[in-house]
Amino acid sequence: MKILYIPVTKKIKEKNFKNYFKCFLYDIKIILKNFSFNKKATNNTSGFIDSAIHSNTFTFELPYSYCIFFSKILNSLFDGIFINWKFTNYRKDINDIETKLIKLSKKFKIKKVIIDSRDQSSNVIKKEILEIFDYVIKREKNKSISDEKYLTTMLPCKLINYKISKNKENIDWSKIGKSITNNLFNYDIFFSGQQSSEYRNELIGFIKSQKLNFYGGVETEKIPHSQYLETIYNSRINLALEGKGEFTFRHLEILANCSFMICENSINQLELPIPLKDGKHFVTFDSKEDLLEKIKFYLKNERSRLDIALNGRRILEEYYSPKKHGDIILKKIFSNAKI
Q1: What CATH number did the domain enclosing 113 receive?
Q2: DSSP assignment of 13-69, as one string?
Q3: 141 and 234 both lie in a single domain
Q4: Is 313 within a domain?
Q5: Do 193 and 281 fall into the same domain?
């Protein structure tokens, strides 16, 4: 299976000569990356599905303008074209994105797939665009989306950085995060994140007011990532609150560190490649009062808390597989074609 992929490009805030030159150089870098003999998985927002495609197909990455210019010959060389929603440099102009998608659709007769790597799980693409594409692979698709053109993917786990292989998936879990639960804790509760919503700020303020052994808060600057990961493992309870989307990098980092997680119940509305279950791999809350009640309960019930933490790590090891995910996705897109 041969796939043409238009990946994420360099984002710019304003149009000027300096930024256009930077974008030109970045486009060249995208092309040159195809000839690397040591392709690594990426940890940007579309890293999981990017790895899934690369590990199952011959994938050639090419910027949008090159795809348009060489569309006639590319149509005969590839089985499908996948385009990341963040393929433009100036992303504030949604009309420009849609216009380019329409133009691309007219140029290509092969399978056309959009990878919607944006964080809003319930947002759908405009009907006019959806009708001219075969599928949309959506990051953490909301269960309320019933259109069969929508397939689901998710964020990558930032702790995993492995070489992409078409033969096998070489993820060494012994070197990733923690495989056993901790029994020596510095803190009861941990959360550190930016103020992405007022509700997040209210929740953290409420928990802080309870005079619990809490570390962190809503902060303007991120703590060093190594310290952040150590604190996850050294905390009895980790809060995974909504950020840019209901499911964040934080959820996967907590699972990978074999640590206990409480998150908002909106996670149960997501369709994920990993079959996470509320009460078995994590615990959810639906209000400030419910959160406080769950915190008090699991601080007292260590055995249940540690079992849930271990279950979370084990299901991540079993199901976190870009290669298996890509195989499932590609079979749906290309039906009976040989992957």
Answers
A1: 3.40.50
A2: SS--HHHHHHHHHHHHHHHHHTT-SS-B---STTHHHHHHHHTTSEEEE--HHHHHH
A3: no
A4: yes
A5: yes
Per-position b or e across 232-261, b if 16+ CB within 10 A of its CB: bbbbbbbbbbbbebbbbbbbbbbbbbbbbb
Compute the distance between CA of residue 27 and CA of residue 281 in angstroms, rounded to an integer.
Answer: 41
CB 4 within 8 Å of CB 81: yes
- What does pTM read for this prediction? 0.93
Q: Is 178 found in the same domain as 147?
A: no
In terms of domains, do 194 and 104 share one? no
What are the φ/ψ torsions at residue 60 (nearest 5 degrees)?
Answer: -115, 120
What is the domain range of residue 220?
Answer: 174-319
> What's the token pair of residue 158?
């930032």
339, part of any domain: no
Please tell me whether residues 181 and 259 are part of one structural domain. yes
Per-residue pLDDT of the chain (339 residues), as tens digits, is 999 999 999 888 888 888 889 889 999 999 999 998 778 888 889 999 999 999 999 999 999 999 999 999 999 999 999 999 999 988 888 889 999 999 999 999 999 999 999 988 999 999 999 999 999 999 999 999 999 999 999 999 999 988 898 889 989 999 999 999 999 999 999 999 887 778 888 999 999 999 899 999 988 788 899 999 999 999 999 999 988 889 999 999 999 999 999 999 999 999 999 999 999 999 999 999 999 999 999 999 999 999 999 999 999 999 999 999 999 999 999 985 554
> Cα–Cα distances in Å, from 336 out to 54, 75, 323, 330?
19, 20, 18, 10
Q: Are residues 250 and 203 part of one domain?
A: yes
* Same-domain pairing of 215 and 72: no
